[in-house]
Amino acid sequence: MIALGFRLVVSGLLQAVRFVLGTLCGNAPATVPPGTVRTAEPARTGPSLSVVICAYTLRRWEQLLDAVHSVQLQHHPADEILLVVDHCPELARRAELALPGVRVLPNAEAQGLSGGRNTGVSAAHGDVVAFLDDDAAADPEWTARLLATYHDPRVLGVGGLVRPLWETGRPAWFPHEFDWVVGCSYQGLPEHRAPVRNFIGANMSFRRAEIVAAGGFRTDLGRIGTRPLGCEETELCLRIAARNPDGKLLYEPAAAVRHHVPAARTTRAYFRARCYAEGLSKAAVARHAGAGPALASERTYLRHTLPAAVADGLRPGGEAPPRTVPALATGVSATVLGYAVGRLRRPVERTRAQAALRALALLALPAALLLWLFSLRGVDLAAMSDLGLVQVLPVTYWAGLVLLGLGFCAALSDRRTRALHHAGYVLALITFLHATPLVLYPELRYSWAWKHVAVTDVLLDTGTLPTAAGRLSIYARWPGFFWANDLFVSHIGLTSPGSYASWFPLLINVALVVPLLALYRSFTRSRRLVWGGAFLFFGCSWVGQDYFSPQAFAFLLYVCVIAAVVHRLPRPGRPRAGPPPLGWAVLVLLAIVTIVVSHPLTPVMLVGSLLLLSLPRRNRRVALPVLLVALTLTLAWDMTAARPFLEENLNDLISGLTTPESNAGSGLLGLSGATSGQVMVAWADRILSAVVFLFAALAVLVRPSLRRTALPWLAVAPLPWAVANSYGGEMIFRVYLFALPATAFGAAALLLPPLLSPSRGRGLRRALRRVRAAAVPVVLVALFGALSLAYFGKENVNYFTTSETSAAKWLATHAPEGSLIVGASDNFPYAYHDYEYHDRLWLSEAAPGDQWQVRRDPAAELHVLTGSGPPRPVYLILNRAQEAQVTATGALPPGTLAHLRSALAHRSDYPVIHRTADAVIYRVLPERTPGGS
């Protein structure tokens, strides 16, 4: 009672002050009884203004008084203030006593904020109606700023800035981008006056005629009591804008209010509940106004505002604290879930399982990507050992990967899922697999990628590739990939492909999506199968031939040529294709030429695939001409530019043809020297490969329609090459790689049963298909497990630290021309820098007897291995990645490198000339003679 009396006294004094000041200024208002509309002062110009405040509880009495007084003290007074009380008679009685000059009205429509606002609009007399929440207080210039823009007749409404006034302080985890959760302006809104789609309900105004013409606020939307639903103002804005295509809804940040945020709204539980309710509200608006207009601002918010917020939270020294990132993920997930549930509430009944699958399909993709982003923080790469990244990636990474697979399965189960959503899942899988090393590693990954950068650098520096460079002379015989990079680097203005080589795995896999989709659409018209095949392709592609290399480049072109040819092959229900368009023929010819001059194996695989495609008579009109072109170009290149290399290696090629059993087992067996972890990795990739081939074979057996496509021919075409040559122990894996475009689709065709309509497929057949569909997520997660081991299990070898890279660069820049570079292996950066000017000796490639001598007497044996020939500078480099490689593969006897470092530690003929945390470089001086100094 004391507080109430104090408020009454203060209110009376304020009214008296206003009356006296008005009298002195010559414009004192006439005394009018409460509830009547005050007429505008004669000096006023422009539209009249009514302010509507809705209240529903006595618990906000203090905030309500602040709201009313803030309007009464405006520099540009409102013409009338209306307080609508929502079904609370006690509050209405108290307000009539405490707020003279304010029209207090009971809500005459349905309970809730929308009904209260409609009541205020019906009773208002002003040209413009402004709305202020009962727990907000307006700045003194609020009304003036709002009315200033209504001189433009095209302006339909004006909204302003809503600043949060935290009762207990802003929580550190609460992101500014989610201030809409507490009814305030959020990061991402315009900072200056600009058109917007909708306003925030705590601070908005409209021309009264427009609200009335649009029918007012929908009473089936909006807050009722403490239920945290909303978006009634969004829906009204959409209707008003639809009625006035030339009109404008303006956001004016200068018209600001302060919105009280109680402690109850700063909890994580409220945050989640409010986000979920917002999703439900957006779904309701989408049903009334259409998903396009209803979600236009949200799409921009998701594409630009939230990614920037996540990046700022993850960036060291960013403005946003890192703890806001989980809140961002939680908020997006809860909102999307609420929207998904809201959209599923349709007149047509749906089972709970269908609703859950639909929600999972919509929610899993953004949630998985946020988990991936969050998992990249604080990964300890130094903790990698025998199983590479598998050991150090946090549980959030694996949870995100599993969630991605489950969400994709859910998306495939709904025939309404759009192709764009499927594409998002495929690109997200590529991101999980191929962007993770890119983000985590400070240096280019994989020693062979460094080798190919070095070859391109030589071409950039000298304009040619050396033909007398040992095993690297092969690049001079198939230089197409390096020519292409030379042209790209020169025209873009770069200095070396090293500036983009780290991105190559991600870019090459993204580029593969297009020809894969084209190929799969030649097999089926089912969108589910097309995207399922693409997802399985990337989920089973463990071979790792996607680094910066001629193989990756040529394989992309191989898939493009095969897709172009298969697309034109005759198939049931399609008339025979006429002569190919000139543009098609030119592009296919250009791709084949590029393949032939870039890589020795890919043209052979291409010829084999085209040969089998030409066997069916119906295919020959399309496939046979392309086969003849590919065969002619391959033979012409091999007999001219590549002939010297083939002649030098003719004996090896012939011997390979005579030992088919050895070729088939090369790379598949021989794991005795590997560590236990690498044996596990090897078995994971072999089992994964076998399962994919098995699934594809079963698909051809159980789906007769696949037998009439090119899939069986493409799957078996690479198999003969497995016994023709070992290809350095990698042929069996290259066979799997070139068969994978076909076998991955076959596996998808086996795993994904056709969707049944509710009226078909009763009985046992339907039950079997349900069991089959339920098994798909289990199989997919198992395949992901094998893929993770196979693809990430060798990263301790493929990863280079900054310190070992700097040491290798020091050696590359300080070793004079004609030096001999010695290492345990070639597994270090810059191993082939200026390879035409230096010789190299890798201990892992020495004869077994020499390796054991190095283990027994390192200093003496190194002098034996490096002492032949004329005197020259000799350097020995040992680094972390070399040791990881020879240990994992057993390329050197156990403990060789540790014994080597120990034996050379105090020898003056092996001085250490450079050392970093992960590498050491020795200068190998001539051997000391007895009695010498």
TrEMBL record:
Residues annotated as domain Glycosyltransferase 2-like: 50-208
Record-annotated membrane-spanning stretches: 325-344, 356-375, 395-412, 424-441, 500-520, 551-570, 582-602, 622-640, 687-706, 731-752, 773-793
Gene3D superfamilies reported for this sequence: Spore Coat Polysaccharide Biosynthesis Protein SpsA, Chain A (3.90.550.10)
Record keywords, A-Z: Membrane, Transmembrane, Transmembrane helix
PANTHER family reported for this sequence: GLYCOSYLTRANSFERASE (PTHR43685), SLR2126 PROTEIN (PTHR43685:SF3)
Name of the protein: Glycosyltransferase family 2 protein
Protein species of origin: Streptomyces siderophoricus
